[in-house]
Amino acid sequence: MLSILKNRVYRHLLAAQVVALMGTGLATVALGLLAFDLAGDAAGMVLGTALTIKMVAYVVVAPLAAAFAERLDRRKMLVVLDLVRAAVALCLPFVTEIWQIYVLIFLLQSASAGFTPAFQATIPDVLTDEQDYTKALSLSRLAYDLESLLSPALAAALLLIISFDSLFWGTSFGFVASAILVVSVALPSPKPTKRRGIYDRTTRGIRLYLGTTRLRGLLALTWTAASLSAMVIVNTVVIVRADLGLSESAVAVALAGYGGGSMVAAFILPSLLNHYEDRSVMLAGAAFGTLTMAVAAGLFASTQMTLWGLAVLWAGAGFGYSATLTPSGRLLTRTACPEDRPAVFAAQFTLSHACWLVLYPLAGWLMTTKGTEQTLIWMTIAALAGLGVALLIWPRSKQKITSGGHADKP
After folding, report:
1. What pLDDT shows up at residue 400?
2. Is residue 277, in this structure, part of any structural domain at all?
3. What span, in angstroms and rounded, lies between the C-alpha atoms of 258 and 233?
4. Which residues contact 194 (CB under 8 A, 6 or more apart)?
5. Given this model, what pLDDT does residue 118 score?
6. Is residue 103 assigned to a domain?
7. Residue 406 located in a structural domain
8. 293 and 177 in one domain?
9. Which segments of the chain have a pLDDT < 70?
10. How many domains, in total, are found in the chain?
11. Distance from C-alpha of 120 to C-alpha of 205, rounded to nearest angstrom
12. pTM (whole model) above 0.70
């Protein structure tokens, strides 16, 4: 897997992703502490609102950013957006009102909504061999999982010597370092052969996406994966602290199980995808993750859940989540020619976050009103629905794509 690091351009891009992720992780911790400092016991509502604003920014801004991406030099665009994120992060330590948090979060996540799809679309242009690109997808998944494990530990260590608002300086440093790494390499920036209107450019990615059979199947599987992750991310703290009556450190153990399962999947996916088609691997991952959620519901119904049992089940959910979504970049790359890739990646970014925009509050509402057992049952049903739709609309036989002239490649 590490052999692709011999490619200098990809090596710099991966390093840019890692330092930006670490900066984002520090901001997540600092934002929670800032919300508590300003709102006290209402900090949860503040963070929930901030998360909703983040998802709205992702859903609304990504297609608009993709419309402009095809007209701009990709390297310059990525650098500017990194610097915008760095500047917004520098403003966060000076926040004195809750509404200011909301405004800055919207600006920060709007820049990320433009940056992330364009960055993701650049990788297959740099690594043109599909096996190399598959390894890159797994490394990217590992980077996300390691960030979720290491950022809280790094933040805890830093808080021993600095105040929480100083963590935002680390966030800004991460984005500046990312910009420096991006500007240090030459990036491909394919341009369309003919000029398109703003409406065509804004909606092109969504139209190509929804006009492609396998990507409609991917969207259904994304719903399944989002059902799994929403249950884990939103409700783990309640399950561990309220239902199991355990300490805060036990929350970290349960979440580490989820991250660990995702990392195991990332390690073995390149080998699996060499032997099995993407569809089979992704459907199996979704089915496995859904099954673990159903088992969790059964154990809660029989009052036999323990911390280690929860960690193992969450590892299964993490494995299923990663196996379902990590290969998605291969499908997107096969669907679009190079100049359309930013638009198609932006469409996946928008539609996937639309799933989370629905499922995050649903998971929280069910937990508050129905309890853990019922929440697990309903989130399992939601995951099963996505899996069933994917099986129905994504046939095993390879389909030709009629929209935009993008034919399936071998």
Report:
1. 42
2. yes
3. 9
4. none
5. 82
6. yes
7. no
8. no
9. 1-2, 41, 43-44, 69-70, 152, 189-202, 397-410
10. 2
11. 14
12. yes
